[in-house]
Amino acid sequence: MNPLALIFCTALFCILLYHFLTRRSVRLPPGPKPWPIVGNLPHLGPVPHHSIAALAKTYGPLMHLRMGFVDVVVAASASVAAQFLKTHDANFSNRPPNSGAKHIAYNYQDLVFAPYGPRWRMLRKICSVHLFSGQALDDFRHIRQEEVFGANARTCEGGSNAGEVGGSC
Fold first, then answer.
1. Are the C-beta atoms of 75 and 81 separated by less than 8 Å?
2. I need a labelling partner for 143 at 20 to 30 A (CA). Which of 25, 114, 152, 153 fits?
3. What are the helix (H) ranges across 22-111?
C-alpha cells in the first residue's frame, strides 16, 4: 500500500475516533464554536460582559461556552438566572469536584466542600446552632479578645522597628 495513503487513512481514523469518543450525552444549550485549546476565551474580548451580551443576541439568553477545557453554561438574562438560582437551586448547588479539595477535606467530608445533601444540612445546622449562635459567640468572646490584643501587640511591635514590611510574625 502507498505510504501516503496509509498516513491519510490513519489520520482519518484518528479524527473519526476522536469525534466518536468526545460526543456528549448531555444536551447543552447553543453557543459559539470553541477553539481547540483555549475554547471560547477569544470570543470574550477585553470587555467580557459586552461580549456576552452580544453573544446572547445571537445564541439566546442561555448559552454554552467553553473556557479552556471547562464547559460553562451562561445565563445572560435575569429571568434565566432566577430559574437557576431559585427554581433549580438544588441541582446547581454543588461545587465542581477537584483533587485538592478531595485530599484536604478528607474526601469531601467537611462543611465547605461537602456535596449538598443530608450530611451538608446536618453540618450546617451544627455550625449555626453550636458555633455561631449568640450564646456560643458570648462564650468565646474572651478568646477572640485575646487574639485581637495579640495581633495588635505584634503589629505595634513590628511597626516600632522600621524594618521589612509584610514579614511573618
1. yes
2. 114
3. 41-44, 48-59, 78-82, 99-104
Q: What is the pLDDT of residue 57?
A: 93
Residue bearing cell 468526545: 22
Q: Report the SS3 class of residue 36.
A: coil
> What is the per-residue pLDDT for 45?
87
In a 10 Å sphere around its CB, with 0-12 CB exposed, 13-18 middle and 19+ buried, how is residue 100 labelled?
A: exposed
Chain segment 2-19, per-residue pLDDT in tens: 888 888 888 888 887 777
Whether pTM exceeds 0.70: no
Beta-carbon contacts of 88 under 8 Å, excluding residues fewer than 6 positions away, are none
Which H helix or E strand runs over 12? Answer: helix 3-21
- Cα–Cα distances in Å, from 123 out to 101, 115, 159? 17, 11, 41
Q: Is 36 in contact with 66 (CB distance < 8 Å)?
A: no
User: At residue 72, what are phi and psi to the nearest 5 degrees?
Assistant: -130, 135
3-state secondary structure of 18: helix
Query: How does residue 110 score in pLDDT terms, banded at 50, 70 and 90?
Result: confident
**Residue at grid coordinates 451538608:** 120
